[in-house]
Specification:
Keywords: Lyase, Stress response. It holds the Pfam family DJ-1_PfpI. This is Thiamine biosynthesis protein ThiJ. Residues 27-217 form the DJ-1/PfpI domain. Helix 1 runs parallel beside helix 8 and helix 2 (63-70) crosses helix 3. The strands form four sheets. A seven-stranded mixed β-sheet has the order 7-5-1-8-9-13-12. By secondary structure, the chain is an alpha/beta fold. Strand 2 (13-14) and strand 3 form a beta hairpin. It has one domain (3-221): Class I glutamine amidotransferase (GATase) domain (Rossmann fold), CATH 3.40.50. Helix content is 31%, strand content 19%.
Length: 222
């Protein structure tokens, strides 16, 4: 049985106006559903071990979102263990969902950067969607290069952010990834899009979580 570790943010507010936020429900629930259908073991870790928060609960009527909230998914996520207490080397893949929350506590978290680096370098699968690719930012590989340098990457775009949370985010994610050398790919705003580059898989927005998980599964099954 393949093992996937979903690493979530603990933040619940962002920006100068303390906008309420969390991990975006479909970006957790849709990948969770895909991993579950693949019969993988799915575990949750958070950066500080506190109960994580969910955003976008208004989309709870979506079948995979509802199944997550009323089934085992949300119950497991609420018991997410502290990342420092997890032996991540035992997992075949790690996945970082988005929501605005990761923009608060994931840009510079030293342990997360180490976990992403080590997971990538041992050729396990690293996946992230929407604002989740902020977890890849500032990750340096053993040769000193940025992880995203020269990699085909997507994330929540500048155009999407301008229409969503420009006043709340501390920086523009598309710009930051590009500045570290990412070969950045987008489609029209809010359309599903995901891309794999070796064992690294990223997606653009909330509609892209399912595609990211499916690409991760394809790599894991290869």
């Amino acid at each position: 049985m393949k093992k996937v570790l979903i690493i979530v943010s603990n933040a619940n507010t962002i920006g100068p106006n303390n906008r309420r936020t969390g991990n975006f429900l479909p970006e957790v629930a849709h990948p969770y559903a895909e991993f579950d259908r693949a019969q993988y073991q799915i575990d949750f870790a958070s950066l500080n071990g506190d109960t994580p928060y969910l955003d976008d609960l208004q989309s709870a009527a979506d079948p995979d979102n509802l199944a997550f909230l009323t089934g085992k998914g949300w119950a497991a996520m609420q018991k997410a263990v502290k990342l420092s207490d997890v032996d991540v080397s035992t997992y075949d893949a790690i996945f970082m969902p988005g929501g605005l929350a990761p923009m608060v506590d994931m840009p510079d978290n030293a342990l997360l950067k180490q976990v992403v680096k080590e997971t990538y370098e041992r050729n396990a699968v690293v996946g992230a969607v929407c604002h989740g690719p902020v977890s890849l930012l500032n990750v340096k590989l053993s040769d000193g290069s940025y992880l995203v340098n020269g990699k085909n990457i997507s994330s929540f775009t500048t155009e999407e952010e301008d229409a969503y949370a420009r006043a709340d985010v501390p920086f523009d994610l598309q710009t930051a990834l590009t500045q570290q050398g990412a070969i950045y790919h987008t489609v029209e705003p809010w359309a599903p899009f995901s891309i794999a580059d070796g064992n690294l898989v990223t997606g653009q927005n909330p509609a892209s979580g399912k595609g990211v998980a499916q690409k991760m599964i394809k790599i894991l099954e290869a």
